[in-house]
Amino acid sequence: MNAKYRRLFITIIIILTLGLATKLILMALEDNIVYFYTPNDLIEKFGDTKNIQNKIRIGGLVLESSIKKEGEKTIFMITDRKKEVKVVFKGPLPDLFREGQGIVAEGMFQNNNFIASEVLAKHDENYMPPEVADALKKNNVWKGASD
Amino acid sequence: MIPELGHILVIITFVISIMQCFYWLCNLRYTNIDVVRVLQKGSLINFLFIFLSFFILTYSFITSDFSLLIVSNNSHTLKPLIYKISGVWGNHEGSLLLWVLILSAFTFFVSFKDSINSKLLASIIGVQTIILSLFLAFILFTSNPFERVDELPLDGRGLNPLLQDPGLALHPPMLYIGYVGLSVSFSFAVAALITGEINKDWARQMRPWIAIAWSALTIGIALGSWWAYYELGWGGWWFWDPVENASFMPWLVATALLHCVSILEKKLIFINWTILLSILAFSFSLLGTFIVRSGLLTSVHAFASDPSRGVFILIILGISIGVPLILYTIKSSSFNEEKSNFDIFSKESAILVNNLFLTTATLTVLIGTLYPLFLDAINGNKVSIGPAYYNATFAPIMAPVVFLMAIAPFLNWKKYTDKNFIKKMIFLSAVTFLGGTLLYLIEEKSIFALICGSLSIWLFTGVITDLISKIREAKVKLQNIKQIFFFISKINLGIHVAHIGVAIFLAGVTGEQFYKSEYNVIKKVGDIINIGTKSLKFDKIENIDGPNYNSLMATFTLYENNKFISKLRPEKRFYTNQKSQTTEAAILSDFWGDTYLVLGEGDNKTGWSLRIYSNPLVSWIWAGAFFMAVGGILSVTQKSSRFRNV
Fold first, then answer.
1. Cβ–Cβ below 8 Å for B609 and A96
2. Over 50: is that where the pLDDT of B574 sits?
3. Interfacial A residues in 38-97 facing B (CB < 8 Å)
4. E strand or H helix at A37
5. Residue in A with minimal Cα distance to B364
6. Is residue A94 pLDDT above 90, yes or no?
7. B609, A120: Cβ pair inside 8 Å?
8. For residues B628 and B463, what is the distance between their CA atoms, to the nearest angstrom?
9. Binning pLDDT at 50, 70 and 90, where does residue B640 land?
């Protein structure tokens, strides 16, 4: 094949692919980003949880003596020592889920209840998810060892 | 005193490697075989000294010398021997020493390749040694593994129990062999830019190193994924976690490079692109090394660490990526390419498209990994990007790659000559259509399940068809063993094996992603759980003592159609000296899939919460990766196909 046409052909393919990829990336970034909030941020920003339709992550500490079991469901409060959010989670919790532990819950709001699809906690008792640590530092309730 | 000897060895190696760099730079214009001989001796000494130093560190771990900071922080007398050893690289400082050890080993091996012309070889050793001295400086100034403690502790703090695992003991070394192996092709590329010398022999000499690095990286990533699958107890095998992406990006670029360099072995075209890819592959390796250890990215399973090393890391990245890229912009236009008129339907085109898609896919992963960091820096928004993003970007870009992977081997170099091409395509489409229909009839899932499964069938059929047609062409008689061996030595069997690996991998992905089922139940001892044709009987739950943990172990009996299959024993382990707890899933694997049982919280009165997954074909994922790696290794032993199809 003629070198000139080949170059044209290659250029067109490259532009098409990159264009398509950009489109895909932009669309995916718009739809699939999960924002992280602490309970206080969440209430400040949205006021009412009815306004939240997207999947989000909430991080903070598991409020002391807030853990309740209802069959397969576990209900507990996440706190940043300013505000609390009630979380409902179905299924086995991570190993280090306990009172006062820093955790991140991912899920959606339904009727003012946060239905978590995932609860993340680190398997090391000193570990704090970085977002949670930052948020707690901001609220001056950080008592971490590493700082 | 022994640890100090290890430290001194690192210092001496640092001095020698700096001297070597200057020696190389001063003799750049008059490189001859004598210069190479000196550099070879230097790299031999570097390798031996680092090896000794690493040995000393390992010895300190084995003998539990808690006067060393990293030993007391990461080891414990009660730990089994294998985890005392793997503890060496289970921390930042030790893992860097391992990195340097592998780098000095690669440098040593490549330096004695006298078949490379001496001008090029001197520069390759030179570039390798510069990287070596940068890392040695990093170790000496910020991350000394031989640092002593002020007060001798009674016992160590132990290794994070999650990391006490055979799969994970081997995961970092394999990953590092992959990362560091890519430094060799990087040095080939930079040496070509410095000396201006590039020819087909350059590509031929370089390819085996890429293949070795690629295979090791494949195994390393697979081990990490396997560990996550059975150890984390989440039932998943890939989470698109930044740490995973960090190892996946160099793999993608190395895959592109491995294909691209095979063109250059035959004809001097795409020189600049090959050089750029070589530089990029290693840049991603460096990024990967540092992302994991620097805590730069927030990640569910990142190691917490010290950000003060950041500046040093930026310097290393700047020198090892920036300088070559500047050299590249200056020198890349000076290479003379051969004239080549290849067809649109030729191997060259197919590999070009493969490269385009693989690099675009890398870009999507890179953006997904860095975007949260970027957004945080811009407006302080904390976001996370999960599998949904990658399913919407990475997957559609990789699907055409797999589609082409099946048919590209049918094509010939330069020209479209295969008269049977259409016939093969019809055959492939027919088999895939039948397979897809079967899949649809077995159980109707989403359209994506159908695409994923069909691609696997398409690729599998493609590779087999290609092999059969090659056997026919060569008129091999299957009774004649000598002829078979001759035939195998003539074709690139590695390619076929690696591509079959991808097909197996995709079958596993189809099963795991789309056909898996999950059950969450609360059951008491004596209860029976029914899952399809299988049933699980909850026999007992008891406390058991392990070597350095206490375990709460449940015992279940698995029946299929009322026939005894196996006992399953999920555990919760409490590691007393870390005050931490791990979940050990009970996994029963067979050819067709896994039964995966996780013990949750509970007590004997209200029952125990249990999570059960049925994961069809899941082990095919790692089997596929294993085939890919074997294919890569086979392609090393294979002589370059320069005698065929030229």
1. no
2. yes
3. 57, 69, 71-72, 90-93, 95-96
4. strand A33-37
5. A25
6. no
7. no
8. 13
9. low
* B128 alpha carbon, distance to own chain's centre: 21
Amino acid code (one letter) for B630: V
Write a three-state SS string for B212-259: HHHHHHHHHHHHHHHHHHHHCCCCCCCCCCHHHHHHHHHHHHHHHHHH
* Region A35-138: CATH code: 2.40.50.140
Q: Which of A14, A27, A28 sits opposite B356 (nearest CB)?
A: A14
**DSSP notation for A60-128:** EEEPTT--EEETTEEEEEEE-SS-EEEEEEESPPPTT--TT-EEEEEEEEETTEEEEEEEE--SSTT--
Q: At which residue do the structure tokens 């990829």 appear?
A: A21
Alpha-carbon separation of residue B630 from A140, B188, B410 (angstroms): 54, 24, 22
Interval B218-237: pLDDT, tens = 999 999 999 889 887 777 89
Contact list, A57 vs chain B (CB under 8 Å): 384
Which pLDDT score is estimated for B600?
84
**Shortest Cα distance, chain A CAs vs residue B27, angstroms:** 41
pTM for this entry: 0.91
A26 touches chain B (CB under 8 A): no
Asked whether residue B317 carries a pLDDT value surpassing 70, the answer given is yes
Of residues A3, A6, A71, nearest to B522 (C-beta): A71
> Which of A17, A92, A124 is facing B357, going by the closest CB pair?
A17
Residues A17 and B396: their CA atoms lie apart, in Å, by 11
**Range in A67-71, B330-334, B360-364 the model is least confident about:** A67-71
Please judge whether B600 and A93 are an interchain contact, meaning their C-beta atoms are less than 8 angstroms apart.
yes
Best B355, B393, B404 residue to mutate vs chain A (most A CBs within 10 Å): B393
Q: Chain B partners of A69 at a C-beta cutoff of 8 Å? A: 606
> Alpha-carbon dihedral of residues B194, B288, B47, B305, nearest 10 degrees?
130
Q: Do A92 and B389 touch (CB under 8 A)?
A: no
Give the minimum alpha-carbon distance from A111 to chain B in angstroms, rounded to a whole number: 24
pLDDT digits (tens, 9 = 90+) for B628-638: 999 999 998 77
Per-residue confidence (pLDDT) for residue B37, from 0 to 100 = 95
Per-residue pLDDT reduced to its tens digit, B598-625: 988 888 888 888 889 999 999 999 999 9
3 state DSSP class of B594 = strand
SS3 A34: strand
The pLDDT of residue A147 is above 50: no
CA–CA min distance A89, chain B (Å): 12
Chain-chain contact of A28 with B389 (C-beta, under 8 angstroms): yes
Closest-CA distance of chain A to residue B344, Å: 8
C-alpha angle B127-B133-B134 in degrees, rounded to nearest 5: 90
Q: Which two tokens stand for residue A11?
A: 């250029």
Q: How confident is the model at residue B53 (pLDDT cuts 50, 70, 90)?
A: very high
Which residues in chain A touch residue B609, judged by CB atoms under 8 angstroms apart?
Answer: 72, 91-92
Check pLDDT > 80 for residue B122: yes
Tokens for B255, please give them. Answer: 């895959």
Average pLDDT on B276-302 reads: 75
CA nearest B191: which of B116, B254, B99? B116
Beta bridge partners of B613: B518, B596
In chain A, what are the domain boundaries? 1-32, 35-138
List, in sequence order, every residue forming a beta bridge with A119; answer none if it has no partner. Answer: A105
Distance separating alpha carbons of residues A49 and B612, to the nearest angstrom: 33
Q: Is A122 on the interface with B (CB under 8 A)?
A: yes
Is A8 within 8 Å of chain B by CB? no
